[in-house]
Every structure is written in structure tokens, then in C-alpha cells.
Amino acid sequence: MPSDNEIIEIRKKLEELEIRVSKLESPAQTKPETVKKGVSIKEFILSKKSKDDVQKTLVIGYYLEKYEGFSSFNAKDLEDRFRAAKETVPDNINYKAIKNIEKGYMMEAKEKKDKLKAWSLTNSGEKFVENDFKET
After folding, report:
1. Which residue, 116, 114, 105, is CA-closest to 65?
2. 125, 134 Cβ separation under 8 angstroms
3. Is the separation of the CB atoms in 50 and 133 below 8 Å?
4. 100 with 54: CB under 8 angstroms?
5. High-pLDDT (> 90) share of the chain, %
């Protein structure tokens, strides 16, 4: 029969093992983190169903601000995203931006970006895209 000291020693080792097992099992019991997959520029453009190049330019501007974190964007940024989405780049992208400015959906940024005129979306422009081109 084991002595009292041996029993105490066995209990200590058992407690240590339980703590180790508990630590090893706890990560397995937590839910794995879900990775939020980004939306490609092409997917986003297709989801919005823009009816013309003026709306498509607005959609790309929205994507640049909301998904890529741009505070403003220029004609080159827009052209690059048209190409990335495998869309035909409009002849005069500046004119498409001006049309959005006239409608109140975009505004000229205070500072140029890469020595080019830059724009950002207005609150109305954001809502217009979010509501699938329906006025609120």
C-alpha cells in the first residue's frame, strides 16, 4: 500500500497533468476564426448592375474608398480598376467624374493625387451606390 507521501505526490502529478491537458484542449474548444473574403472589383461592379459608364465610374470610386481605403482617387486609379475588372475604359474618364460631380455624387478633393485632379464620393454618392442607384 502506498504511503501518505506517495499519495500526495501522485495527486500533485495528476493535478499538473490535468492542468497541462486543459491548456492543450482549450484552443481546440474555441471556434475557429472565420476569414472574411474580400470582394473583387469585378464582382462588385457586376453586383451593382450599373447602366452606363458614369454609374460604373461612381461604383469604382466607391470600391476604391470602401474596399481599398482610398481617401481620394484620380483618373489613373479609375482606369486601373476598369482594366483590373476587364471592363472597357471610357474614352474620357474625367468627363464621367464631372457628370457625377454635377449630380452631387462626387466632389473634387482638396489636394491633387500624383499631380492629377482627384475626387472623392459625397454622402449622396455613397448612398446612391448602396441603394443600387435609387434616390433616397
Report:
1. 105
2. no
3. yes
4. yes
5. 62
Which residue in 68, 18, 19 sits closest to 39, CA to CA? 68
- Positive or negative, the CA dihedral 117, 123, 128, 130 is positive
Q: Find out whether 120 and 72 touch, Cβ atoms under 8 Å.
A: yes
Q: What pTM was computed for the model?
A: 0.72
Beta bridge partner(s), residue 106 = 121
Q: Which of 21-35, 48-62, 88-102, 113-127 shows the lowest mean pLDDT across its residues?
A: 21-35
Q: pLDDT (tens digit, 9 = 90+) per residue, 7-48?
A: 888 888 888 888 887 777 766 666 656 656 688 999 999 999
Query: What is the DSSP code string of 1-14?
Result: ---HHHHHHHHHHH
The whole-angstrom separation of Cα 73 and Cα 14 is 64
